[in-house]
Amino acid sequence: MNTKLKVSKVSKIYPGCIANNNVSLDFESGKIYALLGENGAGKSTLVKILSGVINPDEGQIFLNDKLLKLNSPKDAKNNNIGMVFQHFNLFETLSVFENLSIDSEKNNYQLRILVNNILKKYNFKIDLDVPILNLSAGQKQKVEIVRCLIRNPKVLIMDEPTSVLTEQETEDLFLSLKKFSREGILIIYITHKLKEVLSLCDEVAVMRKGKVVSISRTVDEELSSLANKMIGENLNKIKKITSNNLSGEQILRVSKLNFNSEDPYEVNLVDINFTLNKGECLGIAGISGNGQNELFQILSGETLSNNGSIKFRNKEISKLNPKERREYLMAFSPEDRISQAAVPSLKIYENVALNNFKTSNFFEKGLFNEKKIKDHSKKILSNFSVNTDNVNLKSQFLSGGNLQKLILGRELITSPELLICFNPTWGLDVGAINYIHQTLVKINEQGKSIILISTDNDELLQLSDRISVINKGKLSKIMSADEVNPEKLGLLMGGGLVD
Amino acid sequence: MIKIERRDETSNLIYFLTPVLAIFLTLVTGAIIFYLLGFKPLEALKFFFITPISDLYGLSELLVKATPLCLIAIGLSFCFKSNNWNIGAEGQLTFGGIVGGGVALLFYNHEGFYVLPLIILAGAIGGMVFAMIPAILKIYFNTNEILVSLMLVYVSKLLLDYLVVGPWSNPEGFNFPETRQFNDSARLPVLFEGLRIHAGIFIALVSVFLAWIVLFKTYLGFQIKVSGLSLKTAKYAGFKGKTMILLVFMVSGACAGLAGVGEITGPIGQLHRMISPEYGFTAIIVAFLGRLNPIGIVFASLIVALTYLGAETAQIFLQVPKYTGQVFQGMILFFLLASDFLLFFRIKFLGFKKYEY
């Protein structure tokens, strides 16, 4: 049976911001729809309205010409609208099956048969009796999808589903989604990744500042046209010119580094060796969870390696803590920008004061020099185009892009010789990504070095001079960026070998 | 219709108003309890909260009780702010009292200006060293500081018991479990003739001031704040986490030790089994009621001290057990934790829908 979903003149106003402004959209089963927009464009608000989490101020939703009253997520479920959120709603310590049975009215026996049938039909390989915490992100997402499928959904909404997935997992997901679509499930795919729209979806609606600015067929679109619609300005494409003026002067030498963790959920690092030259960007690719986190922490000094040596500008630093390493002009931008790189409930200037150098004098004679810190913070805000000049703002009110600019600014304003960053553009919109990439290119041009640990292969290929792949805690041989292509990377990331 | 909404931001006003609300709810509930017990509620509350401080002696008693509470709570705020759960202030107080009392007995025959400072210093060091035990065990063996610090309370109490019954008991004391009365030069001077209020209050006030400076104006205070909010960030910033655990426990223990030595050299004047009516535990309530803020703690210590006094007058005038005081302390903490809900959520009264049209 055909499913038609109609969003009619929906508006939602928050104090100081119109999240949805008279949004009207029509969806029909058999197609995959993309809802494209930057962070803050109003996609999530619309999705929350469709899934009953919030009520719109105006407008209606119709399913097959029937007016829907969605007052709670339960109403959405009862009307066969399934929803997979970006962040999983699973109990980590319960088994897969227990998680599925929590909100199911069926008895366990029936449910198990049903789930097994679903798993078989879509070729999902998940053991129902292992705890969720043993699953990869991709498998967790499959559990969420199965949870929706149990209820025979007519509509399946996916909210930025690939932000945590590897490339292989993403491909798997796309195959499944196409299959669902052929079976008559209406699929709405929310994303800010342009490529995914083109490779997966049939139609695309672009949102900007709460409004739908364009509805079109994806065959009529290309990357640049979608990007322009999404951010409303022409992007200047970054292409890093591999620096020819590399002096060859070595700045960092890591040798025979090993790390054995006591935590069974951490990855052990095995015999890490590499060197880094002045002005160079070394990319480290890999599927997430292969030791990137551990490598970052050991390079930053948050954890110490069991043995091996890290020499930075000819000084042995492997036993120093992050603060001491910063004094030697290293800088770090961790993956978790929200709760690690900054404290959300602290004000901007307090978050800036986290990097307290001997020379910065934030705490003269041990006392907090508020004026100095605030002046320093203002400089960061303006030099790194953060979208506010209020240093008293709590950092939780900054968008992801602005927060990342603040963090990079805090790390870079002292002109460090080496920046180590881990997924610096994770979850950001195109405008912010662009800005951060430009910044990274710029510091390379100034003769400073970068280690870029990232799960985004495009980013790595765009910015790196040399690339290595980390797999199960081991680094592959380091290749020059010219000889690397996505296929080669994919092979190494999956644990294969290239000559 | 009542609607509950998540707040976007917690305002400072509500942050300090919720303790007031908690106290109000405690009074209302207290009135109900008194009513159920067959007393006139308002009169009972008056006996409990007004009569005790209606004369100078009462006010002096209030300050005598508030002094140790304030001191201990100040120390605890260092621990609690940095996510270190020191529950054993009572033990650190007792141990500080033991060490200070030991020095007082040692200098029993000495008279001189140096005796009292020496005793006070010894008490602070005693409490500090005793608090370092859970800290060091936490740092090197990853033990749970809640359990260790709590269990050490009983260790120190039993040690005190042994000392006052055995080796340190008063040779002329007819086997009462207590030491000799300390020499006058080992006593904190009384501020006013006839009242018990003593110079210990200045120690408390100085530590309030110092704590405020350290917590809000120094790098150390900043590190404590950040570690309390996010250990991950503290690690990333390169703060020396282990040193800090040790340091906050030392501050906390020293404050509790000072409170202990203040009691024995102040109102008590000797060592015996009951040198503290559980000030160390009650101070936990004071610390939270004062929002871990030194100024807030000053007010909170006065309010909680009043429950001690009120319990005594209620015992006399209403013939209820003095443990009523603990009931009130418990209620304050309970309502405080409950009203913290308002920090993150707001309640909206939308009126009745049917009257809308």
Characteristic terms for this protein:
heterodimer, A: 499 residues, alpha/beta, Rossmann fold, 6-stranded mixed beta sheet, 25% strand, B: mainly alpha, ABC transporter involved in vitamin B12 uptake, BtuC, globular
Overview of the molecule:
The complex is a heterodimer of chains A (499) and B (357). Chain A has helices spanning 43-50, 73-78, 96-102, 108-122, 137-149, 167-182, 194-200, 223-231, 292-300, 322-327, 348-352, 370-383, 400-412, 430-445, 457-463, 486-493, and strands at residues 4-14, 17-28, 32-36, 58-63, 66-68, 81-84, 155-159, 186-191, 203-208, 211-217, 250-259, 269-277, 281-285, 307-312, 315-316, 330-333, 363-364, 367-368, 418-422, 449-453, 466-471, 474-475, 479-480. Chain A has 499 residues and is of the alpha/beta class. In chain A, the strands form 5 sheets. In chain A, strands 13, 16, 19, 20, 21, 22 and 23 form a 7-stranded mixed beta sheet that branches. Chain A has a 6-stranded mixed beta sheet with strand order 6-7-8-3-9-10, with helices on both faces. A 4-stranded antiparallel beta sheet of chain A has the order 2-1-4-5, with helices on one face. The N and C termini of chain A lie far apart (52 Å). The mean pLDDT of chain A is 86. Chain B has 357 residues and is an all-alpha fold. Chain B has a two-stranded antiparallel ribbon. Chains A and B meet through helix 10 and strand 18 of A and helix 8 and helix 9 of B.
